Amino acid sequence: MTAEPVAAPIETGEPATELSADLTGITTWLFDLDDTLYPPERQILKRVSGRIFDYMVRLTGLPEDEARALQLRYLTDHGATLGGLLQDYKFDPADFLADVHDVPLDGLDPEPGLRLALERLQGPRYVFTNGSTEHGRRVLEALGLTDLFSGLFSIEDAELLPKPAPETFAKMIARFGIDPTRTAFFEDTPRNLQPAKVLGMTTVLVGPRALTSTDAYIDFRAAALGPFLATAHLAETKA
């Protein structure tokens, strides 16, 4: 699907984003959670990342510089720190998930404009996250969006194998019974969109660096989710 030209910033002060996207063929709406349903300046994911690193240092006993290098390798090889730690160390994954997601959610307030934009979407909406189930529930509640989503697929549902693993996409698709070719997937991490595109999904990269991305597997780019959804062309509502 060809993206529309980039528009100038809209009057609300939101960042520039691709407006008037053609999503008329979409019947299912799939969203990453952190830094996608809310902007990264809310710092929630940064807090989680800090706790992940602290947990890793305690678990491995490595100096911080060595732990940082190991974490970067885990992220490259496994898509998440957890996958690498599970391969090399013995610990309780449930304890890890509870610990690293125990962060304050101050700053996550309901945004009426985003809610109105999500309400425009015809068909079920789902969350597909590498975070824990409890974290997903807390974030949706803080954003005031819980009632708009039909399901949440978390890292526990993925049996601790994070996106972008194809097996995890397969589990998610089976859980929700969706047709990938009629699904739009919104993500802030480019490489998580690659397997989605292979499956036939319409891919939307979200976030402040989205507009500079040139990856061929990305159909649309949205610096701000709300304006993108608010202006998208959708299928006509059946009478």
Mean pLDDT metric: 91
The amount of helix comes to: 25-40%
Spatial separation of the terminal alpha carbons:
28 Å
- Helix-strand sequence: EEHHHHHEHEHEHEEHE
Number of strand segments: 8
Structural class based on helices, strands and sheet pairing: alpha/beta
Q: What does this protein structure show overall?
A:
This protein has 239 residues and is an alpha/beta fold. Helix content is 38%, strand content 12%. It is built from nine helices and eight strands. It has helices at residues 44-60, 64-78, 81-88, 93-100, 112-119, 133-143, 166-176, 194-198, 225-231, and strands at 22-23, 28-31, 125-128, 151-153, 183-187, 202-206, 220-222, 233-234. Strand 3, helix 6 (133-143) and strand 4 form a beta-alpha-beta unit. Helix 2 crosses helix 3 (81-88). The protein starts with 21 loop residues before the first strand and ends in a 5-residue tail after the last strand.
Strands, helices and their partners?
Layout: E1 22-23, E2 28-31, H1 44-60, H2 64-78, H3 81-88, H4 93-100, H5 112-119, E3 125-128, H6 133-143, E4 151-153, H7 166-176, E5 183-187, H8 194-198, E6 202-206, E7 220-222, H9 225-231, E8 233-234
Parallel strand pairs: 1-8, 2-3, 2-5, 3-4, 5-6, 6-7
Brief summary:
38% of the residues lie in helices and 12% in strands. The protein contains nine helices and eight strands.
Describe the structure using short key phrases:
two-stranded parallel ribbon; alpha/beta; single chain
